[in-house]
Design brief:
The strands form 2 sheets. Strands 5-7-8-3-2-6 form a 6-stranded mixed sheet, with no helix packed on it. The chain is mainly beta and about 120 residues long. The protein has 1 helix and 8 strands.
């Protein structure tokens, strides 16, 4: 049976944290945590496991406010260089926009301390 040579394997797990290297501008926080929006299954040949890779295409910087679930990029699943699927990357962090007080406090924190 030809089907017995193949299996469906979960290669991307929903809500798995992958990175937090997107910088936040004008937010109360400086960075956000990123996660996969969905699971992704790939049908693989059991004899010679497909060599797949996951390529990330995401923004470098985002402006606050940011909510959990906001799309910040995509993960592309590639098999032998060909795209076979994509999953959205979303923020796992809520970042509120800075208010005037936050901006003033940030400036004060950077001032040299005088004794």
């Amino acid at each position: 049976n030809a089907y017995s040579n193949f299996s469906s394997e979960k290669i991307i797990v929903k809500d798995e944290i992958i990175s937090n290297n997107i910088k936040v501008e004008k937010g109360k926080g400086d960075k956000i945590e990123i996660k996969y929006a969905d699971d992704f299954y790939l049908t693989v040949n059991k004899r010679n496991k497909e060599n797949f890779e996951i390529a990330f295409d995401m923004i470098d910087t985002i402006k606050a406010p940011i909510n959990v679930g906001d799309k910040v990029g995509v993960a592309k699943v590639l098999v032998e260089g060909e795209e076979v699927g994509r999953i959205n990357l979303v923020s796992n962090t809520k970042v509120d926009k800075q208010n005037y007080k936050d901006i003033v406090n940030k400036i004060i924190d950077k001032l040299p301390i005088v004794k």
